[in-house]
Structures are given as structure tokens and as C-alpha cells.
Fold:
Amino acid sequence: MGAGNSSFFRDTRGIDTVPLKMVFHLAITGAIIFLMAFSWNNVAPFYSGAKNRKQINSAVLDIVSIQDEYARNLQDLSFTEGSMCSIELSLPDARFLAFGVDPDHDMNGNLSDSSWLVENNTIICQYENGVRNLYHIDGETIIFKKGRLDNSTGLWLPDEDADSTGIVIEGPISGTFNFELIPDDGKYTLSHF
Structure:
């Protein structure tokens, strides 16, 4: 076998092992892709949960930050707003987010079949898969009230038609949510949504 007679294309010594090597390498590549996809399906909920916890913990800090500030007097119309905070939330897999109340304490999925349990200083997030996370707000008692916009004055007032305490946002949750500190026989955190 001389140097002139040999060529890359004429060398057939390993031709019978090429298909076997190809199948082996494709099988290894397929296994790696399968393991990566399987791992992502297991890791994604933890990543999403960490992102959601970060948003809700940030909301807790914003709510706590207004508690020692100025509360708007509801009888004096010249004062248009008390201390406020705006919370950005994006929780697409949340079933509900409850401030100061547990609307589904029997965990049957129906928020209107039983009375809501007052849970001051808490935020409860329940996901579509049934998992519930409870976030406790340290410090003095924080009572949440649902607000309604009074069209005649353009001011937010406590909603008399709703339960006396607690705010529930049903999912999917996305947007900016505003809270204001008001006095109403005590100090309340009023929703503006």
C-alpha cells in the first residue's frame, strides 16, 4: 500500500464500525437531552416559586413601610391621599393571593362557600396545584380592607358591601396593586383596585 494508492475515500478499513459509532453517539446525545428536559421540569417549579417568594417578600416590605406613615382622614376631603405603596406582581400560576384573610380555609377550591377567616399580618398565596404559602408580616397588627372608588369625590373609601376585613386577588395575577393607609376606627391598609 503505497502513498500514491491510499486516499481518504478509498480507505475502507473502519467502514463497518461507523454506523455502530453513530448509533452510540446519537443514543448518548438523546439521553443527555432527555435528562436535561426531565431536570428542567423538576427544577422549573422551584425557580418559579423562588421568583414568586421574592415578589411577595418585596410586597411585604412595601406594606410594612407605610404602616408608620401618614393615614388619610376619610372625613376631610381636602386631604386626597395618605401614605401609599404600589406593588408589582406577576404570579400567573397563582389561584389567589389573600391579604389578611384566608378565603379557602377548608381548601375545597371554592372561595365563596364559607366565611373568610381573618388572618391579620399574613399574606396567603395558593397555587393552581393546591400548594399554599403563608407569609407572616412582623410588627404591629395590619388590618387590610377592600377599597372602592367613590365616583362623586374621586377618593377611595372602605367597601361596605365586602367583608369587613381582608383583600383577595384571584389569579392569574399580574399588574400593579396600590395600598393606602387610612384611619377608620383604627388604622387600616386599604386596597385601590
User: Anything to note?
Assistant: DSSP finds one helix and ten strands in the chain.
